[in-house]
Design a protein that fits this description.
The chain is mostly helical. The chain contains 12 helices and no strands. 42% of the residues are buried.
Length: 303
């Protein structure tokens, strides 16, 4: 049995998931002035510079870095920002995007030929039921007018892209994850700026940059420095010192912080159906994450 986390390490992990969870509110604040694709491009530009000059490039092929940068930069965050520009609330976005866990499992099993186990089907069923609850309420006035079926589907696509990034980063092997994220950002920045110019237009870009205030730029920096550089560095540091089974369950708190922060700061309502949906999705995540650990303990006790 793994040793309990020291208090300092526990609070560091809690701080990381708090940053990741409340980040959805920060995204919403930044989108008040910046077009979504421009916002995503700036986020990865500041993650790339100036850190790229201080961190050596990981010993992985350029195609691996490029694939990760495109999947995470364009597929995950580019689409997530588009969805959060009036198509889904921050709290629900923080919840739905956690389905990346199941997409990651599915992609990994497809590559290895491994069969889905019964507890994983049960976990997927619970999470899927939560998504159905969200979808069935999307588009109505009871969602606050900020959640649509298209928004839910876009965040599911973002989760799938995140899962693809997980598979690509796993193929990179044991690398400095902070350096990996920084260098892969070089593949995300150019296409995001080009997509912003093509779809959002020069006038929208100019207006967004002109209207951006201190809160907007703080949101961009929070995305780059807090969410990306600090989050990945601290999480990687913790995983290097403790078993993954000790650290990863903390990630279940990301939607808790996300929905709580959105309710507190932005006034997002939390009616019963949202709480039911959150309970189903998080129950599925918890079952998938904790069941193998519980079974292993039971088997060790019986030996």
């Amino acid at each position: 049995m793994s040793a309990p986390l020291p208090a300092r390490h526990f609070f560091l992990a809690l701080l990381v998931v708090a940053v990741w969870g409340t980040n959805f509110v920060v995204i919403k604040l930044g989108l008040a002035h910046l077009p979504p694709l421009l916002f995503a491009a700036l986020r990865f530009a500041f993650a790339l510079l100036p850190a790229v000059f201080f961190l050596p490039r990981p010993a992985v092929p350029w195609r691996n870095l490029a694939a990760y940068g495109l999947l995470i930069g364009v597929g995950q965050f580019g689409v997530l920002y588009l969805a959060m520009r009036g198509h889904i609330t921050p709290g629900l976005a923080s919840l739905v995007v956690q389905t990346q866990v199941f997409f990651t499992i599915g992609l990994a099993m497809r590559g290895s030929g491994e069969v889905v186990r019964p507890f994983q089907w049960a976990a997927l069923g619970l999470a899927a039921a939560g998504i159905v609850v969200i979808g069935s309420h999307a588009g109505g006035s009871h969602t606050g007018g900020d959640t649509t079926v298209a928004g839910v589907l876009m965040v599911l696509f973002a989760a799938l892209s995140w899962a693809g990034g997980n598979i690509v980063s796993r193929a990179a092997g044991r690398v400095n994850m902070l350096a990996y994220v920084v260098w892969s950002s070089a593949a995300a920045v150019p296409p995001l700026f080009l997509l912003s110019w093509w779809f959002e237009g020069g006038a929208a870009i100019e207006a967004g940059l002109r209207q951006a205030d201190a809160v907007t730029w703080a949101s961009v920096l929070w995305q780059s420095v807090g969410n990306t550089l600090f989050g990945y560095a601290a999480w990687g540091w913790l995983l290097a010192r403790h078993p993954a089974a000790t650290i990863t369950p903390m990630a279940l708190l990301v939607p808790v912080f996300g929905m709580g922060a959105s309710s507190w700061w932005l006034g997002e309502s939390l009616p019963a159906w949202k709480l039911v949906a959150a309970g189903l999705v998080m129950a599925g995540l918890a079952l998938n994450l904790l069941w193998p650990r519980w079974r292993s303990r039971q088997e060790n006790r019986s030996d």
